[in-house]
């Protein structure tokens, strides 16, 4: 009830939620109130939470922020992460707004309404998990799930002053996550602090036979890593992450954070990730290529609202898709289809795959010597609604510090690390080795 009261108070302005599940949530909460099961057997007992709207929830509308799926009211199954949250006795409050099919960095691509930044509603909350970050920042839920393909958990977490983690690729099952770019997508938690984040990841992690890319590795107790001890930790700071384009106040907050780590007995050194400069181009080719294939299923027959204006079969597919998808989604489908088409495949898709390997190798090399990589999450704090919407390339460039992590597949967190002059938060990004979320959490927790 407290969650719904808060939503009633603030969601008119923040617009984080697309769908609420009030009746069911309240009846689940009542059941838990009356139940005799021990709370400690259920790590998220009674905790109100929100789910990004590209994660499938049984019998609860799942739109992916798209008009095309506005009537997808009755999905037949739960995503694995949702099943796991239910088993842990978390209470789902509702579904959270996002850029259409997770394509965007500001939530302005939601085809319903843009979510606003709770710190200042003239600013964007970031994207594509903008609703997930804003709902936590505004106190509407205690945690949320987002998805991160090129920064979509970390960037909105940074813009909204909350904690967001993208796990190692394969750590969390993608079964029931509507695919954007299957080789990059991961689901992760957004919370107010590091401990809550570790707790939620503990619940949603693990191998799943329904997702062949989920890794069969042990899930350690992340919360036990939160010792506060970072003595002897070796931190790498890539010079490319503090280069031109990163605003002076963001740089300063990162340098201040490094001083905190020094005072705690950690060491840091400047390093280079030389292929970072190709990351944005590589990502937008690969992600769009995968998206063009993944989005083929939305045809107005199996999924999506069917056009009423078509007179034959082919027109029905075409018209449903042109009426259903928004502009950014169409732009990506066209770019991806082009990069994959014969004659262009070698020059674009294949080349991008090769550069992806070089980017991954950059990380591997650094991690031979260092425990974590630290830099800013974004080059600047949140921008104004409308400021970049006309210019997709500027919008894409904003992802420069988060994208390399997805291309490599390593885990990374964003934790709040300061405020700009106009009072907007920015984030410190801590990147770890494959499946070493423990060190990422330990490092983040010591700074908090
Ligand atoms: N902003 C990036 C994009 O538009 C990242 C999106 C994401 O991580 N889902 O593709």
Helix % is 25-40%
Largest sheet, described in full?
11 strands, mixed
List of distinct ligands in this structure: glutamine
Strand content range? 5-15%
- Count of DSSP helices? 14
Radius of gyration: 21 Å
Question: Which class best fits the helix and strand makeup?
Answer: alpha/beta
Number of strands: 11
Distance between the termini: 30 Å
Overall pLDDT score: 96
Strands ordered across the widest β-sheet:
1-3-2-4-6-5-10-11-9-7-8
Q: H/E element string?
A: HEHEHEHEHEEHEHEHHHHEHHEEH
Unreliable residue stretches: none
3D shape: globular
What does this structure look like?
The protein has helices at about 1-15, 20-35, 80-85, 130-135, 155-160, 195-205, 250-265, 280-295, 315-325, 325-340, 345-370, 390-395, 405-410, 435-445; strands at about 15-20, 50, 90-95, 145-150, 165, 185-190, 235-240, 265-270, 370-375, 410-420, 425-430. It has about 450 residues and is of the alpha/beta class. Helix 7 (about 250-265) links the parallel strand 7 and strand 8. It starts with a helix and ends with a helix. The mean pLDDT is about 95. Keywords: ATP-binding, Ligase, Nucleotide-binding, Protein biosynthesis.
